[in-house]
Amino acid sequence: MVFPLNLPNSITLIRIGMIPLLIWVLSTSRLTSGGGEKEILASALFIAASITDGIDGYIARRRGQITTMGILLDPLADKLLIAAAFITLVAFNPRLVPAWIAVVIIGREFLVSGLRSIAASEGFTIEASDLGKLKMFVQIVAVVAVILDHRWQAWPLAGPYIFPVHWIAFLAIWFMVGVSLISAGDYFIAFWRQIDRHVVKRQRRRAFILSRRKKRNVAAV
């Protein structure tokens, strides 16, 4: 069996391969945080992995290389990246990412995946909402800020001004939790409306088929 390993799928596999590397960088004691090299490397890895999420989809649509393998791997890579990042951050920076926040974020990802799987099995799709896209952007900002907060509370700028890394991380985390919960509710409402319409259509189709069968039976008699 030959797998369709085209360019978009290769980029997705690279993103999946970056996940254990990110976990290693954040958890290893071989890299020190003295000069912030560990935090910068981890931030760069996460940003690079997040960017590939948009690149592989764009290339697949542009080249017409959308495959079953890509449809399966792309959302799986996203979920693995977010889950790995937050599970690791619970140990890396527990001041900003307590365990319950990781549970909420990861639980939301699996909830949305489950709803989409049920929708696909019923023959319809749930499109990504604007809230879901905003959630992804806020997640990138929050993860990077939390990683950098492990080494820097603030960055000095020109004169008396500073770049408040800690407060950006703090606000981004809580904003992300709020957006994640609201977007999860938005997905659930969209799913409920779609499944309700699907059930109504199925009932009407079944009633139509039964009525035609009754007419045929009456005509046969």
Structure description:
The chain has 221 residues and is mostly helical. It has a single domain, classed as Four Helix Bundle (Hemerythrin (Met), subunit A). Helix content is 78%, strand content 2%. It is built from 6 helices and 2 strands; from the N terminus they run αααααββα. It has a two-stranded antiparallel sheet. The mean pLDDT is 81.
Summarize the helices and strands and which ones pair or pack.
Blueprint: H1 7-27, H2 37-63, H3 68-92, H4 99-122, H5 130-149, E1 155-156, E2 162-163, H6 165-220
Antiparallel strand pairs: 1-2
Sum up the structure in keywords.
mainly alpha; Four Helix Bundle (Hemerythrin (Met), subunit A); two-stranded antiparallel ribbon; 2 strands; elongated
Q: What fold name stands as the CATH topology?
A: Four Helix Bundle (Hemerythrin (Met), subunit A)
Beta fraction: under 5%
* CA-atom Rg in angstroms: 23 Å
Biggest β-sheet strands, sense, barrel: 2 strands, antiparallel
The amount of helix comes to over 70%
Secondary-structure arrangement, i.e. CATH architecture: Up-down Bundle
Structural class: mainly alpha
Number of beta strands: 2
Succession of helices and strands: HHHHHEEH
CATH class: Mainly Alpha
Q: What is the rounded distance between the termini?
A: 55 Å
- CATH fourth-tier homologous superfamily: CDP-alcohol phosphotransferase transmembrane (TM) domain
Q: Which runs of at least 5 residues are low in confidence (pLDDT < 50)?
A: none
| Widest sheet, order of strands | 1-2
The tally of structural domains comes to: 1
